Amino acid sequence: MANKNAVPPYTARGRVEGENWQAVADVLNARMAARRIGQQALATASGVSVATLRQVQHGTHARRVQNATLTAIARALGWPDDHLIRVLLGDQPSLEASPPVGTDRMVVARLDALEGDLRRMNERLSVIERHLGVFDS
Question: Do residues 93 and 84 make contact, with C-beta atoms less than 8 angstroms apart?
């Protein structure tokens, strides 16, 4: 008799037998809490959408998240690139080689966002100055 609670295998577009998405969700949520980082900040730092990040955090989703997505999230949190993939496959990855890059990536991402904001404000200011007849000397 089959176990009703067993996770069914899906095609390559969905779940794959032997992958533990709940374990990925557990370690991801614990790391986010320990680093006091929210979904939006992690999404910005990793380049992953908030919607995809939310799916990974819940451990239940209809489509399989790509390895590149898991790698980007792992990097943003200062883990080795393959950390979340190894958790997904049931390995107990070592964190000894974990470079402390997560915070640096978040800072760089935030600085990039601020530069974009400044650029847009300068463009708006230039339009206003042209409209008022004010010119740079």
Answer: no
Tokens of 117: 């904001």
Region class of 133: left (phi > 0), else alpha (psi between -120 and 50), else beta: left
End-to-end CA distance of the chain: 84
The pLDDT tens digits for 11-30 are 334 456 678 889 999 999 99
Contacts (Cβ under 8 Å, ≥6 apart) of 50: 39, 40, 43
Rounded distance, CA 40 to CA 48, Å?
10
Query: Does 5 reside within a domain?
Result: no
Tally the C-alpha atoms within 13 A of residue 110's C-alpha that lie toward its C-beta: 10
CATH number for the domain harbouring residue 107? 1.10.260.40
